[in-house]
Amino acid sequence: MTAHGRRRRFVVDADSLDRLYREHSQRLLVFLARRLLDPNVAVDLVAETFAAAFAARRTFRGTTEDEAVGWLFGIARNQLLMHVRRDGSRTRALRRVARERRELNDVELERIEELADLARLRADVQAALPALSDDHREAVRMRVVEELGYSEIAERLRVSEQTARARVSRGLRTLAGLLATRSEAP
Fold first, then answer.
1. For a Cys staple, 116 with which of 33, 43, 144, 160, CB 3.0–4.6 Å?
2. Can you spell out the DSSP letters for 3-63?
3. Residue 86 DSSP one-character state
4. Residue 67 half-sphere exposure toward CB, CA atoms < 13 A
5. What is the pLDDT of residues 23-82, one digit of tens each?
């Protein structure tokens, strides 16, 4: 508190971002790894999140550290969406900081997979896939497993690109609902 009884505003600068990284990067890594099922990309997106946060540090309008953490997770979510939209290409933020990606070793990969419980998540996804309609299951398989673009999925399924996008979206939404139900079960 200041002398006038108002709280001091939390300032996002290099020092506070460094501390936020030390205290919250593992949670961000797990958040991203569970959504991507790819530890290498998750590590990249954590780095991109903090690079983007540093670049946008003056735009932070919160007043507390908790708000700063929420802001970071929002940036991570945006980085994830951008990654999905561009099919995994590297972001401009990483190129701006000129950081080369170091390949993770087996121990690091296993640790991230363990932290995010990816083995169980993969098994849950595999068990939930039969609950999807054939059309949705095939569209999700092409997009997620084969990593095809929507135009190629549309071509293979002989549907419009809009229909291919809708099938993938509906299939993923159904899977998310099934997985949420399984995680809530005792």
1. 33
2. TTSPPPPPP-SHHHHHHHHHHHHHHHHHHHHHHHS-HHHHHHHHHHHHHHHHHTGGG---S
3. T
4. 11
5. 999 999 989 888 887 788 888 899 999 999 998 888 898 889 999 999 999 999 999 888
